[in-house]
Amino acid sequence: MRDLLPRFRLYDAEQGILINDLIPNSETLTAVHKKLGTCPVDLAARLGTALSTYHAIRFVEGAPQAALFPQQSPWILRLHGEADLSGMRRSPAASALVDILLAAPGASTMLGALRDGWKRDTLIHTDMRWENCLLAPKGDALADRRLYVIDWELADIGDAAWDVGSMLQSYLAFWIGSMPAGTDPAALFAGAAVPLATVQPATSAFWTAYITASAAYRDDAADFLTRCIGMMAARMMVTAFERSAWSQATDPTAILLAQTALNILADPDRVAEELLGIVDPAPDARHQAIAA
């Protein structure tokens, strides 16, 4: 993992402070994609390979390292089972979004199935998103910039599908966030400043690079992709909540994200090809050679 991380400097055990290098002259993947207005395929493939690198760190039940981690599934998967949701109702917009998720038909069952199937067998970042990935130095060609993954304070022993789904939702959220205001689905789709057709080659490249590099999931790629799609929808709900957490007025993009997530959970079989552009969940040797 060393190539992905800022350089370690010091750990202050008394104060619980980890000190790493700052990464000068860097920018987040969010900034890179906004600047370009599109999703570079080569960069997506690098991300897929990066995630497969640390997901290769496997854990077995009862291993000594397990005691260092909380091993807890994300809060969104437990939303419908929480007795006290007062902490989620941080603002009028957040409260309204929580009510939408709680009232959505089938949401409790679908999220509960993801929770019940949650695995605890690999190192996961838990907060994987473009904002936590940096490229440096700015100004160099993308292929020449080093990729860093930062903000590991939520790292856990958990389900690799969550990290993969989280990164896939970053791409779809980029597309959704570029849509104009309105409620007509056809107008929203047609008016997106970042067309889905320009996002799909990147999501496909990300998946191909990840699965071809993953010894743990390569042989069960189709089932793993199905779980990743479910986690992608759940992570999209988290993104919608994060956009609403401290807002007074409901954010139209947050509502659109939440509705898209619910639609994905309700009909996941159509998502791989129609939304993500992934035609073959288990690329053959020819695709593996291209990814390499």
Describe this protein's structure.
- This protein has eleven helices and seven strands.
- The chain is mainly α and 292 residues long.
- The strands form three sheets. Strands 3-5-6 form a three-stranded antiparallel β-sheet. A two-stranded antiparallel sheet has the order 1-2. Strands 4-7 form a two-stranded antiparallel sheet.
- A hairpin with a 4-residue loop joins β1 and β2.
- α2 packs parallel to α7 (196-213), α3 packs antiparallel against α8 (221-244) and α5 (160-177) crosses α8.
- The longest helix has 24 residues, at 221-244.
- The radius of gyration is 19 Å and the shape is globular.
Question: How would you summarize the topology of this molecule?
Answer:
Elements: E1 8-12, E2 17-20, E3 27-28, H1 29-36, H2 41-55, H3 92-103, H4 107-116, E4 122-124, E5 133-136, E6 146-149, E7 156-158, H5 160-177, H6 185-191, H7 196-213, H8 221-244, H9 252-266, H10 271-274, H11 285-291
Antiparallel strand pairs: 1-2, 3-5, 4-7, 5-6
